[in-house]
Design a protein that fits this description.
Elements (H helix, E strand, L loop, with lengths): L1 E6 L2 H13 L4 E6 L3 E6 L5 H13 L4 H4 L1 H22 L6 H4 L7 H16 L27 H4 L16 H21 L2 H23 L7 H17 L9 H15 L8 H19 L4
Antiparallel strand pairs: 1-3, 2-3
Helix pairs in contact: 1-4, 6-8, 8-9, 8-10, 9-10, 9-12, 10-12
């Protein structure tokens, strides 16, 4: 803060402080024993303008334009206080982020995705049989032939762009993905809207599935492309737009990247790396673009 001068009387100093506040200049009026009432300006860039207004005030402190600003200043402060309270409601305690999600419960869209994934997992005999779930594959390759043009989708079976996210191969695969989805999906639903999560899942799911298909073929499945998309989205959106209420602890972000690269270099084999990469890039891009122009 920068001191721009003193005024001898408290009523005049308070009136001038209110006048500055209405003009958009944040300030502090503080009593100093020997000098009187000091006028402190919060923003260095506003110091010159405030000093000029102080000179004008000293020439005519009884001007009605100064005395009439008290009510307007009070209204502005009340409005700012309400905005800060609303902001605090949206920001959760970062140290207890995932614990705080329990107060929201699992969002309806997140719950539906988890139930659908578990149902498909059971239907596929716990990931051991693709024949019963052929309709959920991006293309039917069970006969041994793979048509890269995706004929089923071209002929109207557009759900195949999304449904591979419901397929999982083994208990650990489905458990880890559902735990991530429970936390990340519920966060987006609680702090934005269920429809926002639907849009994220559809677009990130479809594009990450296509990336995996064209890089590594049709035998794949899992929610991890969407999960990495949500990780990227929540991390960058929360970083650039704290008012969104989204936040990912840096240790969570780092651990997800460690897992990503462990899969990429085949320390953990048989993983849909192309889906992970596409989902992460899409999530980061979406989070960045959606944060533009927001505080």
């Amino acid at each position: 803060m920068r001191l721009i001068g003193h005024l001898s009387e408290e009523p005049g100093a308070r009136a001038f402080g209110d006048y500055l506040y209405v003009q958009g200049i944040a300030n502090l009026v503080e009593h100093e024993k020997q000098e009187g009432w000091g006028i402190w300006i919060s923003d260095e860039d506003q110091v010159g303008r405030a000093a000029g207004l102080l000179d004008e005030f000293r020439k005519n402190p009884g001007d009605s334009k100064y005395l009439s600003q008290t009510k307007s200043a009070e209204e502005l402060r009340d409005q700012e206080k309400k905005e800060q309270q609303e902001y605090r409601k949206r920001i959760k305690n970062r140290k207890n982020l995932f614990g705080s999600l329990t107060s929201y419960g699992v969002g309806p869209v997140t719950f539906a995705l988890i139930i659908a994934s578990l149902a498909v997992f059971s239907w596929s005999r716990f990931g051991n049989a693709l024949e019963p779930i052929r309709i959920f594959l991006i293309t039917d390759f069970t006969g041994g032939y793979v048509d890269k043009s995706l004929p089923e989708i071209r002929h109207g079976e557009v759900w195949r762009l999304i449904t591979p996210i419901l397929i999982h191969f083994g208990p650990l695969h489905v458990i880890f993905n559902m735990l991530w989805m429970r936390d990340l999906g519920s966060m987006v639903e609680a702090r934005q809207t269920p429809w926002h999560l639907v849009l994220l899942v559809i677009i990130i799911g479809a594009l990450s599935n296509l990336a995996q298909f064209y890089f590594n073929g049709p035998k794949f499945g899992g929610m991890s492309g969407v999960v990495y998309g949500l990780i990227g989205y929540i991390w960058i959106r929360g970083k650039l737009d704290p008012g969104s209420g989204l936040f990912l602890h840096r240790y969570t972000w780092i651990s997800s990247l460690v897992w990503f690269f462990a899969c990429l270099v085949n320390i953990i084999p048989q993983v849909a790396n192309a889906a992970h990469a596409a989902g992460l890039v899409l999530g980061l891009a979406w989070g960045y673009l959606s944060s533009l122009g927001r505080k």
